[in-house]
TrEMBL record:
Family per similarity comment: Belongs to the AB hydrolase superfamily. MetX family.
An MF annotation (GO) of this entry: homoserine O-acetyltransferase activity
E.C. no: 2.3.1.31
GO CC aspect terms: cytoplasm
Record's function text: Transfers an acetyl group from acetyl-CoA to L-homoserine, forming acetyl-L-homoserine.
Species per Swiss-Prot/TrEMBL record: Allorhodopirellula heiligendammensis
Region entry Disordered, spans: 128-163
Name of protein: Homoserine O-acetyltransferase
Catalytic activity: L-homoserine + acetyl-CoA = O-acetyl-L-homoserine + CoA
Length: 641
C-alpha cells in the first residue's frame, strides 16, 4: 500500500453529525481559573465505553486533540466514525471488554462542554471577572441542542454568548473539569490516562498536578510545551480568524455570517503543520496540476489547494472560531518546563509508570521534545517506555490507521494486566502466551546472567528483544529488581515492551545523557562494543551510570579468523557473532581481547572478572590459556575505583 493510500487521518472524516451517545453533567460549584476569574457553572459533555467494575479500578481517561471531541470511537456498527477507532473498542489496544473508557469534550470546546458559544447572563459578569484580569466570565446555556445550533441563536433578554469574552483558560482548567467528572463517576484513581497532541498535554498535566491520579500515563505525539515555531503558526491562525470581517469582536453568533473564512484558513494552516514533507508529496505530487474542483472561494490551482479548501470549509461546519482561539491559546500557554531540571521538578512526585510515543517525521511535536520528558523521567528513575515510531506521516501519524497498528501494541502492553501497574513484570509464561518466543540466551548472555546478583538494578544497552533482561527477571523471580533496556530498532523495542520490560528508544552513539551518576548497580553492553561509534566515550558513560559494567564482545584475534584473513585472504567471518559479509557487517570495530585489555588499563579501569569461550567448540577457555588466540567471545566485568 502506498503512502498516499495509507496516510488518511481519522480527523479528516469527522462530521458535524449529532453525538448520539454523548452524556452531559452539570457542575454547579464555580470553577476558579488559573489565569484569573471564574466560571460560575460548568457543563461537561462526555462519552463512555465498556462497564465500570465494582471498585472503579478499570477506568481509562482518553483526552482529545484540538479538533477532537468526546467521540473517540464507535459505540456500535451503526455509529459514526470516531477519531481513535483503531485504538479503542472490543479486543482493541484499549479493550472496552476489559476497561471502562471515558472521553470528555474539553472545557472551551464547542461539542457540548462549556465554551465561548454558550450563553451568559449579564448578572454573571461581575461574578466571573477577576480584579487582576478583566476577562468576563460565563453563565451557562441550558439548551440541550447541538452546540452549533445553540451558538447560532440569539439569547433572549440579557443573555448572549460569551464569544471573545470567554475567560482565558489553561490546560490545567481543562483537567480540573475532568477531575470533577471523575468524582461524578465515582473514579478515585484512573487505571490510565491516555492522550495525543493536546490530549497528551492533558495527560501530562494530570500526573504533574495530581501525582497519584493514575497507574499509567500514556502521552503520544506531544511535548512539555510548544516550540516557538508551533507558537508562531498558532498566532497566524488566530490572526486569520480575528481579522475576518465577520468576526465582529467575537460576537458573531446572532449575525447572518460567521468568520468561516478566517477559521477555514486557520484549519488549512493547521493541516500543513500536521503533515510531513513526504506525506504531502505522496498526497499531492502525483496530480499536483490536476486539482479536484469544489465549490469554494479559495484558490484551487493545485491539488493541494483543493484538498486544503475542502478540509478548511468542512471544518467550519463542526467547529467554532472562538473555541479554536481559546484552545490554541491554552496550548500556547502550556509549559511544564524547558529543561531537564525543571521537568524533573514537574514529575518528581509522580507515582505512575509512563509510555511515551513520538513519530520520526513529526516536526510540529518533534521527537526531541518527547525525549526531554523521557530524560527527566529516567533521571528520576520512573518506570518509562519510549518509542520513536518510524513514519512518513508527520504529526497526523497518531491518527492514522497503519501507525496506530504500530504503536497500539505498546499501549496494549502497558495496560495488559492488573499486575503491570503495580510494577510486576511479565513472567516468562505470560510472555510466551502473548506471542513472545521463549527466552533463548547466547553463551555470553548465560555468563552475564550468572554474574548479576539478585536485587540488582540493571541497564541493558542495545538490549535487542529483551531476552537477557527477561532471563534476569525470571532467574530472580520474587525479588524486586529495576530492569531497563535501551534499544534503537523499532521491532526490538516492541518485543522488549511485550515482555513487560521498560525500554527507551535511544542511540548509544549519543552517550547516556538521560541517566544520572551511579543510577544502576550494573550496566550491560552485550555484543555491541564493536558496533558503536565512540567506544571510549560509551565505556566512560557506562562506568558513570553504573557502579559496575559488564561488556561482551567478539574476539577478532580468534584462531579461525586469523586463518581466514592471513592464510585465505578473506575478511574475518565465522559462525555466530561474526557471520557477516564484509559489505553488510554491522561491525565498525574489530576488537581483540588484547586490544580491549590495553584500552581498559589506559582508562584506569579494573577488570573484576574475565570469562572466555570458544563458542564454535562449546568450550570454556581459561584466562591462562591464551584466550586472545583460543576464544571467540569475551565477557568482562569491570569497574572504576
Amino acid at each position: 500500500m502506498s503512502l498516499n493510500e495509507d496516510c488518511s487521518s481519522t480527523d479528516d472524516i469527522r462530521s458535524d453529525e449529532p453525538l448520539s451517545h454523548a452524556q452531559t453533567v452539570w457542575f454547579n460549584q464555580p470553577l476558579l481559573l488559573e489565569r484569573g476569574g471564574q466560571l460560575p457553572k460548568i457543563r461537561c459533555c462526555y462519552e463512555t465505553w465498556g462497564t465500570l467494575n465494582a471498585d472503579a479500578s478499570n477506568a481509562i481517561l482518553v483526552c482529545h486533540a484540538v479538533s477532537g471531541d468526546s467521540h473517540a470511537a464507535r459505540h456500535n456498527a451503526n455509529d459514526q466514525p470516531g477519531w481513535w477507532d483503531g485504538l479503542i473498542g472490543p479486543g482493541m489496544s484499549i479493550d472496552t471488554n476489559q476497561f471502562f473508557v471515558v472521553c470528555p469534550n474539553v472545557l472551551g470546546g464547542c461539542r457540548g462542554t462549556t465554551g465561548p458559544g454558550d450563553l451568559r447572563a449579564e448578572d454573571d459578569l461581575e461574578l466571573a471577572t477577576s480584579p487582576n484580569q478583566p476577562i468576563p466570565g460565563v453563565s451557562i446555556n441550558s439548551d440541550e441542542r447541538s452546540p452549533l445550533e445553540a451558538m447560532s441563536r440569539q439569547g433572549g433578554g440579557d443573555e448572549r454568548p460569551y464569544g471573545a469574552d470567554f475567560p482565558r483558560i489553561t490546560i490545567g482548567d481543562m483537567v480540573e473539569v475532568q477531575r470533577r467528572l471523575a468524582d461524578h463517576l465515582g473514579i478515585v484513581k484512573w487505571r490510565a490516562i491516555v492522550g495525543g497532541s493536546l490530549g497528551g498535554h492533558q495527560a501530562l498535566q494530570w500526573v504533574s498536578r495530581y501525582p497519584n491520579c493514575t497507574h499509567t500515563c500514556i502521552a503520544i505525539a506531544t511535548s512539555p510545551r510548544l516550540t516557538s515555531q508551533a507558537l508562531g503558526f498558532d498566532v497566524i491562525a488566530r490572526n486569520a480568524i480575528q481579522t475576518d470581517p465577520h468576526f465582529h469582536g467575537g460576537q458573531y453568533y446572532d449575525r447572518p455570517n460567521r468568520p468561516v473564512t478566517g477559521l477555514a484558513i486557520a484549519r488549512m494552516l493547521g493541516h500543513i503543520t500536521y503533515l510531513s514533507v513526504a506525506a504531502m508529496e505522496a498526497k499531492f505530487d502525483p496530480d499536483r496540476h490536476d486539482p479536484r474542483h469544489i465549490a469554494s472561494d479559495f484558490e484551487q490551482r493545485f491539488s493541494v489547494g483543493s484538498y486544503l479548501a475542502h478540509q478548511g470549509q468542512k471544518f467550519t461546519t463542526r467547529f467554532d472560531a472562538n473555541s479554536y482561539i481559546t484552545l490554541s491559546m491554552a496550548m500556547d500557554l502550556f509549559d511544564l518546563g524547558g529543561n531537564r531540571l525543571k521537568l524533573m521538578e514537574t514529575f518528581d512526585e509522580c507515582t505512575c509508570d509512563f509510555l511515551l510515543v513520538s513519530f520520526s517525521s513529526d516536526w510540529l511535536f518533534p521527537p526531541a521534545q518527547s525525549r526531554e520528558i523521557v530524560n527527566a523521567l529516567t533521571a528520576l528513575d520512573k518506570r518509562v517506555t519510549y518509542a520513536e515510531i518510524t513514519s512518513d506521516a508527520g504529526h497526523d501519524a497518531f491518527l492514522i490507521a497503519r501507525d496506530m497498528a504500530t504503536y497500539g501494541p505498546l499501549v496494549q502492553e502497558r495496560l495488559r494486566s492488573s499486575d503491570t501497574h503495580r510494577g510486576v513484570n511479565l513472567s516468562a509464561g505470560d510472555a510466551v502466551s502473548k506471542g513472545q518466543s521463549p527466552v533463548q540466551l547466547t553463551v555470553a548472555e548465560e555468563s552475564i546472567l550468572e554474574i548479576i546478583p539478585a536485587g540488582s538494578s540493571v541497564l541493558d544497552l542495545g538490549c535487542g528483544c529483551g531476552e537477557l533482561l527477561a532471563a534476569i527477571r525470571d532467574r530472580h523471580a520474587g525479588t524486586p529488581m529495576r530492569l531497563m533496556g535501551v534499544e534503537v530498532a523499532q521491532e526490538n523495542i516492541l518485543s522488549t515492551a511485550m515482555r513487560g520490560l521498560d525500554v527507551i528508544d535511544y542511540d548509544l552513539n549519543n552517550g547516556l545523557p538521560a541517566f544520572i551518576d551511579d543510577q544502576f548497580d550494573v550496566v550491560v553492553l552485550n555484543a555491541t562494543l564493536q558496533a558503536v561509534d565512540n567506544v571510549v566515550a560509551l565505556l566512560e558513560e557506562m562506568l558513570r551510570v553504573g557502579k559496575k559494567a559488564i561488556i561482551s564482545f567478539p574476539n577478532f584475534a580468534y584462531r579461525a579468523l586469523r586463518e581466514d584473513y592471513v592464510t585465505r585472504g578473506r575478511s574475518p567471518r565465522a559462525v555466530g557473532e561474526f557471520d557477516f559479509d564484509w559489505h553488510d557487517t554491522p561491525n565498525r570495530r574489530f576488537p581483540t581481547i588484547a586490544d580491549v585489555h590495553d584500552l581498559l588499563i589506559e582508562m584506569g579501569v579494573t577488570i573484576d572478572r574475565e570469562i572466555y569461550w570458544d563458542v564454535s567448540q562449546a568450550r570454556h577457555i581459561d584466562a591462562d590459556d591464551d584466550p586472545n588466540l583460543n576464544a571467540d567471545t569475551a565477557v568482562l566485568e569491570i569497574h572504576r575505583s
